[in-house]
TrEMBL record:
Domain of life: Bacteria
Known catalytic reactions: Release of N-terminal amino acids, preferentially methionine, from peptides and arylamides
Co-factor note (free text): Binds 2 divalent metal cations per subunit. Has a high-affinity and a low affinity metal-binding site. The true nature of the physiological cofactor is under debate. The enzyme is active with cobalt, zinc, manganese or divalent iron ions. Most likely, methionine aminopeptidases function as mononuclear Fe(2+)-metalloproteases under physiological conditions, and the catalytically relevant metal-binding site has been assigned to the histidine-containing high-affinity site.
This protein's encoding gene: map
HAMAP family in the cross-refs: MetAP_1
Job of this protein: Removes the N-terminal methionine from nascent proteins. The N-terminal methionine is often cleaved when the second residue in the primary sequence is small and uncharged (Met-Ala-, Cys, Gly, Pro, Ser, Thr, or Val). Requires deformylation of the N(alpha)-formylated initiator methionine before it can be hydrolyzed.
Chain positions recorded as a divalent metal cation 2 binding sites: D140, H204, E237, E271
Residue ranges of every copy of the Peptidase M24 domain listed in the record: 45-278
The name this protein goes by in its record: Methionine aminopeptidase
InterPro entries with a match to the protein in the record: Creatinase/aminopeptidase-like, Pept_M24, Pept_M24_MAP, Pept_M24A_MAP1
UniProt: a divalent metal cation 1 binding residues: D129, D140, E271
Entry's family note: Belongs to the peptidase M24A family. Methionine aminopeptidase type 1 subfamily.
Cofactor(s), names only, from the UniProt record: Co(2+); Zn(2+); Mn(2+); Fe(2+)
């Protein structure tokens, strides 16, 4: 059986450097993108505009985070910020998710649902994960916050290392490298501290839809996964656990969304939406 090619050159057009590189790796059996994953300059500009709103929303969250507020207040702020900036929160009603933002405290890895009863205490660490839609374009980012500005040395190190993992992943993401290069570098750094990299969830393509190809695993081996080429837009969002990489769904969550660390030790995550350029990635969610 002949394997169907994923990459199709434009009929009647000369081969570009992009065509040559992708065809070279596809002929070697590597997974390559389809042409529709390469965003046009107009699409990238649309995602960039959504990223500006996303960044502004997380900046507003940063100003309000403090002991004594509850996570429903964070959701209210994000919902109002979107309304004020002609944006739509992508999480709201996505596959039954009931709120506009994810608020994940301490041992909650991701998809924490905002609630009035979840009151922040000094020393908590919380991830706020926001995805905005502006004029049909998606931007996705998350940040960690230390409530009250101080926590235990162990949690502080976890938050710092998780951010370093994102930065390292961004640094190794080069044109015509592979998704596995990102995961390998992140996992290598994480293991220096005895931390676990969550395997059940991953980064993803984004921009014209909430979730697109490729899956961006945060562990793995160099030279594996999809080839990364200029024009692709995707997230890197490593979830780093203080203990085991394993996770479970919170049985008390009626929506089936909240993910908890397997040993209920703290977890931390940072995320950016990125576009691959001719020299490396550009962040669209600063």
């Amino acid at each position: 059986m002949i394997k169907k090619k994923r990459w199709h050159c434009l009929p009647g057009q000369p081969l570009t450097e992009l065509d040559k590189q992708v065809m070279f790796w596809e002929n070697k059996g590597k997974l390559v993108p389809t042409r529709d994953l390469i965003k046009t300059p107009e699409q990238i500009e649309g995602i960039r505009k959504s990223g500006v709103v996303n960044t502004g929303c997380l900046d507003a969250v940063a100003e309000m985070i403090r002991p004594g507020i509850n996570t429903q207040e964070i959701d209210d702020l994000c919902m109002q910020y979107c309304k004020d900036h002609n944006a739509i929160p992508a999480c709201l009603n996505y596959e039954g998710y009931p709120k506009s933002v994810c608020t994940s405290i301490n041992e909650v890895v991701c998809h924490g649902i905002p609630k009035e009863e979840d009151v922040l205490e000094e020393g908590d660490i919380i991830n706020v994960d926001m995805t905005t839609i502006v004029d049909g374009y998606y931007a996705d980012a998350s940040r960690m916050f230390i409530v009250g500005g101080k926590t235990t040395p162990e949690k502080e190190q976890l938050v710092r290392v998780a951010k370093e993992c994102l930065e390292i992943g961004m640094e190794v993401a080069k044109p015509y490298s592979f998704v596995g290069d990102i995961g390998h570098a992140i996992e290598k750094h994480c293991k220096k501290y005895g931390y676990g990299v969550v395997r059940d969830l991953c980064g993803h393509g984004v921009g014209c839809q909430f979730h697109e190809e490729p899956e961006v695993l945060h562990y793995g081996h160099r030279g594996t996964g999809m080839l990364l080429v200029p024009g692709m837009v995707f997230t890197i969002e490593p979830m780093i656990n203080m203990g085991t990489w394993q996770v479970f769904l919170d049985a008390d969550d009626p929506y089936g969304w909240e993910v908890i660390t397997g040993d209920e030790k703290p977890s931390a995550q940072w995320e950016h939406t990125l576009v691959m350029t001719e020299t490396g990635v550009e962040v669209l969610t600063y």
